Amino acid sequence: MGTWLAALAVALCLGIGFCFAAESDFPLSGEKQWQQARQDLAQGKAGDAKTAFEDLLKRYPNEADLHLFLGMSRLRLRDPQGAIQAINKAIEINPSHVEARTLLGYVELEIRGDADAAIREYHKVIELKPSSAEAHSNLAVALKKRGALDQAVVSLNRALELKPDFAAALTTRGSVYAEQSQWTEARRDFQQALMLNPNDDGALYGLSQSLREEKDYAGAQGALSELIARSGNFVYWLEWGRVVMIRFWWVLLLVAIGWTLKGRFMKARTQANG
Questions:
Q1: What global pTM score does this model have?
Q2: Which domain does 254 fall in, by range?
Q3: Which end of the chain has fewer surrounding CB within 10 Å, N or C?
Q4: Residue 77 falls inside a structural domain
């Protein structure tokens, strides 16, 4: 279900950095049904929105934005193939449709698991909109999933040149550095991301891993404790327990030695008392 919710968030301009179909001078601008359908989609009424977009397409079959929003509705209704068909139709009508290509790249990567297809779409988006920090960041995510970590860093560097306060790009670059075991660089990026967005759980978890690898166990435990306070994710509890054991291993060792010596003492006394 998480993938579907993420896909919906992307479609509603929460994850890919673009706002779809901004109001522009085109025939749908005065259509109340168009406005209502988009509102329905934003409110989670995907079925109603889909029906409205299909009805509008009978009158406006060559409007790329309509096909795009129909694709988003189908995506929310767990119909990825239908979504891709509608998105591709939007691109066929308007090959320069940045938002449609961006969403297609997301679907290819996160739902179909085709990093190469996503990379192709994101490269095209960058050709169309080279100054978009989000486009470079999206490309980096796809490159990271393909394992091209050095290339991902290059794309993220470019994204951050264009938008220095881009918290999500800092978190992504931190995660790439973590995969490369460059823990100092990873910690720096996670800390900067958290300064910009204190609610970024991904950055906070990454910071905990970086601190642990740098043997700052108290800092790692603190970061994980904050994550646990935010959510009951079992992974955080496991990591917290692991860090506590590493941090206090000497206490556990002393306890174990104490119990061993006590056992030997009791055994020796028992034998002595025969």
A1: 0.79
A2: 166-262
A3: C
A4: no
